[in-house]
């Protein structure tokens, strides 16, 4: 099991990033909550990781905090929730926000996430409620592990990159386009646009 990675950030294209660890490039899938914290390309970062082994692939997931990784691991234990959906949930809400949804039985906020229907939202509330104490401990102890806070300047078209990232997270292309169409791209990175788009959807 790979518990964490420490290396140089060499590439990012949500939901994927590439980490150079002593000359070995690790491709990692990460939620947007992790991308928001990433420093500039070339900076050293530490990611908490979880390895999913399938018959056709080994997929490494990375998280900026222990709390996010703990929630990811708890989510994939829920019936009907796989790694892809768990990543989408984490991208749409922070671990703390999700905790509040479960505590308040707020299924309406959950069904706004792509891939989460009414039945899945109700199942999440029921099955996650008893597991929340462990997550609360992670909130208290888990800090941001990625180093630095510099924003990566947009290289190509940040709006188009944001649409592609939202599609990777499960949104339909038409819906993703509508989510970002009214957001000004001036002085904003791809991550900034995605953050604003998701905030507009969840509220």
TrEMBL record:
Physiological role: The RuvA-RuvB-RuvC complex processes Holliday junction (HJ) DNA during genetic recombination and DNA repair, while the RuvA-RuvB complex plays an important role in the rescue of blocked DNA replication forks via replication fork reversal (RFR). RuvA specifically binds to HJ cruciform DNA, conferring on it an open structure. The RuvB hexamer acts as an ATP-dependent pump, pulling dsDNA into and through the RuvAB complex. HJ branch migration allows RuvC to scan DNA until it finds its consensus sequence, where it cleaves and resolves the cruciform DNA.
GO cellular component, one term: Holliday junction helicase complex
Assembly and binders: Homotetramer. Forms an RuvA(8)-RuvB(12)-Holliday junction (HJ) complex. HJ DNA is sandwiched between 2 RuvA tetramers; dsDNA enters through RuvA and exits via RuvB. An RuvB hexamer assembles on each DNA strand where it exits the tetramer. Each RuvB hexamer is contacted by two RuvA subunits (via domain III) on 2 adjacent RuvB subunits; this complex drives branch migration. In the full resolvosome a probable DNA-RuvA(4)-RuvB(12)-RuvC(2) complex forms which resolves the HJ.
GO biological process: DNA recombination; DNA repair
Residue segments, region Domain III: 156-203
Similarity-based family: Belongs to the RuvA family.
Swiss-Prot/TrEMBL domain comment: Has three domains with a flexible linker between the domains II and III and assumes an 'L' shape. Domain III is highly mobile and contacts RuvB.
Domain Helix-hairpin-helix DNA-binding motif class, first and last residues per copy: 73-92, 108-127
Broad class of where this protein is predominantly found: cytoplasm
Gene: ruvA
UniProt cross-references to SUPFAM superfamilies, sorted A to Z: DNA helicase RuvA subunit, C-terminal domain, Nucleic acid-binding proteins, RuvA domain 2-like
Protein source organism: Methylobacter tundripaludum
Name listed for the protein in its UniProt record: Holliday junction branch migration complex subunit RuvA
Domain of life of the native organism: Bacteria
């Amino acid at each position: 099991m790979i518990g964490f990675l420490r290396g140089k950030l060499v590439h990012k294209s949500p939901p994927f990033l590439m980490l150079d660890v002593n000359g070995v490039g690790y491709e990692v899938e990460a939620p947007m909550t992790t991308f928001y914290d990433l420093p500039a390309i070339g900076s050293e970062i530490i990611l908490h990781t979880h390895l999913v082994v399938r018959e056709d692939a080994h997929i490494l997931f990375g998280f900026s905090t222990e709390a996010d990784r703990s929630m990811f691991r708890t989510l994939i234990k829920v019936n009907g929730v796989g790694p892809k959906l768990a990543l989408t949930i984490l991208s749409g809400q922070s671990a703390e926000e999700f905790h509040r949804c479960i505590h308040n039985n707020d299924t309406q906020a959950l069904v706004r996430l792509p891939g989460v229907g009414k039945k899945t939202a109700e199942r999440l509330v029921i099955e996650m409620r008893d597991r929340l104490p462990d997550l609360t401990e992670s909130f208290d102890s888990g800090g941001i592990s990625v180093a630095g806070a510099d924003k990566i300047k947009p290289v190509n078209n940040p709006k188009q990159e944001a649409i592609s990232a939202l599609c990777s997270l499960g949104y339909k292309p038409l819906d993703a386009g509508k989510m970002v169409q009214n957001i000004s791209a001036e002085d904003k990175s791809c991550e900034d646009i995605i953050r604003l788009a998701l905030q507009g959807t969840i509220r």
